[in-house]
C-alpha cells in the first residue's frame, strides 16, 4: 500500500514538473461556476480457480468550481463483490453489494495551462451494504459510515476533457458494536469533463 501511494505522489510531482512544458496547450485553471462531471471504475478478479472471486466498483460525481482550482460536489458509487462456492457446474453465488452517496471536495494543482494536472480529493460516504445468496437478499445494513481520500493525475486530452488515474483510500466504520471496521485501497481510472470556461 505504501508503494502505491508513493507511486501516485511521484506521478503527481511529475505532472507538476511537466506542466511547465505545456503552458500554452490547455486551460486547466477553471473559472468559478464551471461544472465538472466525472466517471471512474475499477475491477479486480482472482485468477485462482479455487477462489472464483471478483470485485468491481463504478463511481460518478458532479461538482461546481467555487474558485479556479477548488471544487465541491457529490459522489455516487456502486460496487459488487462476487464469490462462487461449491460445485463449479451449479455454484452457489454470494454477492456483497455496496452503494455509497456523499459529499466531495477537490483541489487541482499545477499551472494555469498544463497537460498534466495533479489533484487531491476527499469526503465522506453514507453506505448501504447488502448480502445476497443466489439473488436472494439475506442481510441489509443502511447505517454504515465511511471516509475517503485520494490523490491522482488528470491528463488533459482537450480543453474540457481528460482522463484520470488515482489511488483511493476508503475507511468504513460500522455503527453497531459487532461491526468490523474495514479499509480499502483502490486504483481507479476515469474520465472528467468540464462544462464552462
Would you kindly provide a brief summary of this structure?
Helix content is 9%, strand content 64%.
Features:
Porin; mainly beta; 9% helix; 8-stranded antiparallel β-barrel; 197 residues
Summarize the structure in words.
27% of the residues are buried. The chain has an eight-stranded antiparallel beta barrel with strand order 1-2-3-4-5-6-7-8. It is elongated and about 55 Å long. The longest helix is centred in the first third of the chain and has 18 residues. The protein has 197 residues and is mainly beta. About 5% of the residues have low confidence. The chain has one domain: Porin, CATH 2.40.160.20. Strand 4 and strand 5 form a beta hairpin. It contains one helix and eight strands.
- Termini separation (Å)? 37 Å
| Element order: H for helix, E for strand | HEEEEEEEE
Low-confidence stretches at least 5 residues in length (pLDDT < 50)?
16-25
Across the major sheet, the strand order is 1-2-3-4-5-6-7-8
Please identify, by name, the CATH architecture. Beta Barrel
What percent of residues adopt helix (DSSP H or I)? under 10%
Shape designation: elongated
Rg: 19 Å
Could you tell me the mean pLDDT?
78
Strand content: over 45%
Query: What would CATH call the class?
Result: Mainly Beta
Amino acid at each position: 500500500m505504501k508503494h502505491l501511494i508513493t507511486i501516485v505522489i511521484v506521478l503527481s510531482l511529475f505532472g507538476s514538473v511537466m506542466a511547465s512544458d505545456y503552458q500554452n496547450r490547455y486551460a486547466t485553471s477553471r473559472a468559478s461556476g464551471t461544472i465538472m462531471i466525472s466517471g471512474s471504475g475499477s475491477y479486480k478478479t482472482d485468477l485462482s480457480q479455487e477462489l472464483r472471486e471478483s470485485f468491481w466498483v463504478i463511481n460518478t460525481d458532479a461538482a461546481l468550481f467555487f474558485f479556479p482550482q477548488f471544487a465541491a460536489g457529490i459522489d455516487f458509487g456502486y460496487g459488487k463483490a462476487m464469490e462462487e462456492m461449491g460445485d463449479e457446474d451449479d455454484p452457489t453465488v454470494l454477492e456483497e453489494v455496496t452503494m455509497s452517496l456523499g459529499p466531495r471536495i477537490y483541489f487541482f494543482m499545477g499551472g494555469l495551462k498544463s497537460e498534466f494536472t495533479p489533484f487531491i480529493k476527499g469526503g465522506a460516504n453514507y453506505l448501504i451494504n447488502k448480502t445476497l445468496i443466489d439473488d436472494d437478499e439475506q442481510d441489509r445494513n443502511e447505517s454504515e459510515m465511511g471516509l475517503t481520500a485520494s490523490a491522482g493525475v488528470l491528463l488533459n486530452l482537450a480543453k474540457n476533457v481528460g482522463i484520470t488515474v488515482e489511488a483511493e483510500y476508503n475507511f468504513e466504520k460500522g455503527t453497531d458494536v459487532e461491526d468490523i471496521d474495514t479499509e480499502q485501497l483502490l486504483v481507479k481510472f476515469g474520465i472528467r469533463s468540464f462544462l464552462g470556461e
